[in-house]
Amino acid sequence: MAKILVTGALGQIGSELVAALRDRFGAEEVVASDIRMGRPDDGPFELVDCTKSGQLQEVVHRHGIGTIYHLAAILSAVAEEKPQAAWTVNMGGLYRVLEVARQNRCAVFFPSSIGAFGPTTPRDQTPQDTIQRPTTMYGVTKVSGELICDYYARRFGVDARGLRFPGLISHVTRPGGGTTDYAVEIFYQAVRYGHYTCYLGPDTRLDMMYMPDAIRAMMEVMAADAARLVHRNAFNVTAMNFTPEELAAEIRKHIPDFVIDYEVDSELQAIADTWPHSLDDSAARAEWDWAPEFDLAAMTADMLERLGRRLSRAR
Ligand code: NAD
Ligand code: SER
Fold first, then answer.
1. What is the CATH number of the domain that holds 266?
2. Are residues 216 and 255 in the same domain?
3. pLDDT band at 40 (very low <50, low <70, confident <90, very high)
4. In a domain, 44, yes or no
């Protein structure tokens, strides 16, 4: 089997995706890479800046890579602070990954986002195919990314596939500067201090997913029968949606004294207010049998149990 390269492998998704891919295919078959050095792991690691074609080419050649999970990116909150850098990394990186994939016949996974939608998109049960006029630089790079992946598939036959993820919740690696990060931070603060000050307002409803479902979704769409795929790229996928108030109420079932209060960040709130409340993921269900396993109750129980254990060991 040709090997797998993961870019941005030290991030929130990559740190769990690499472990899952190595469990499935073997440690030596999965090359983790990032622009920064990681801690020693149980398999190959390469320093790769995804905006540098030469670095990508060299690693793809040397390791005999057949599939690239391209996770390197700048997320929504940081992208609004540094829009020029976000364009360079998110679009420049994806373009170079696709070119290397075209030249070396690699398959590519590209993660899009609820950020690919905007204020004129229907916000409830957001359809698979709908209006996409995002007003953030992150969103602009995600829509452009979806389109260029479709282009490379149609024009050059690159097997590019992708998902539109909602906010992802996980307990292994802290999130890297997104608008939905509150839904992870709240758990750390709940376990440590029983208190969290939220930067989004109490009624801000956003789509979310627990990381084990997200990892499985990536591996399933890449393994899906190509003949069944109508969309290939940018499948809506979702598992749950909630507001900060509803998440706090769920946490209170486990930590009855938990307190949430609010100091709304107007810039992050403005981003969240342009994103869907809930996605319609029927295309993913129909074309490759997508089905999430974790709802709000199951995710909250698992997060608190695992974080509780880890943070108490660290004390
Ligand atoms: P993250 O910020 O946690 O990790 C991104 C990684 O990319 C970091 O380790 C960083 O060092 C690396 N990186 C940055 N610039 C690089 C460069 N030039 N070359 C190589 N590596 C570079 O992000 P994540 O949460 O793991 O997200 C991964 C992908 O999934 C991104 O495309 C993101 O937009 C998408 N996504 C994430 C979420 C989420 O909630 N985490 C939701 C939707 C989509
Ligand atoms: N979690 C991501 C963000 O907030 C969604 O793409 O940027």
1. 3.90.25
2. no
3. low
4. yes
Number of separate domains in the chain: 2
Residue 287 lies inside a defined structural domain of this protein: no
Question: For ligand 1, which residues put their CB under 6 angstroms from it?
Answer: 7-8, 10-14, 34-36, 48-51, 71-73, 75, 89, 93, 111, 113, 165, 167-168, 175-176, 178, 180
180, 125: one domain: no
Question: pLDDT tens digits for 238-289?
Answer: 999 999 999 999 999 999 999 999 999 999 999 999 999 999 999 999 999 9
| C-alpha–C-alpha distance, residues 191 and 195, integer Å | 9
Please indicate, yes or no, if residue 285 is contained in any of the structural domains. Answer: no
Q: Is 166 helix (H, G, I), strand (E, B) or coil?
A: coil
Residues 193-240 pLDDT 10s: 999 999 999 999 999 999 999 999 999 999 999 999 999 889 999 999
> Which of 257, 255, 259, 254 minimizes the C-alpha distance to 297?
254
Q: Say how far apart CA 109 and CA 218 lie, in whole Å.
A: 8
Of all residues in the chain, the percent with pLDDT exceeding 70 is 99
Tokens linked to 80? 């609004």
254 found inside a domain: yes
Q: Residue 248: which domain range?
A: 169-207+240-276+295-314
Beta-strand pair 65-70/3-7: parallel
CA of 111, nearest ligand number: 1
Atom number, ligand 2, closest to the C-alpha of residue 165: 6
DSSP strand E in 71-141: where? Answer: 107-113
Distance of CA 26 to the CA centre of its chain: 23
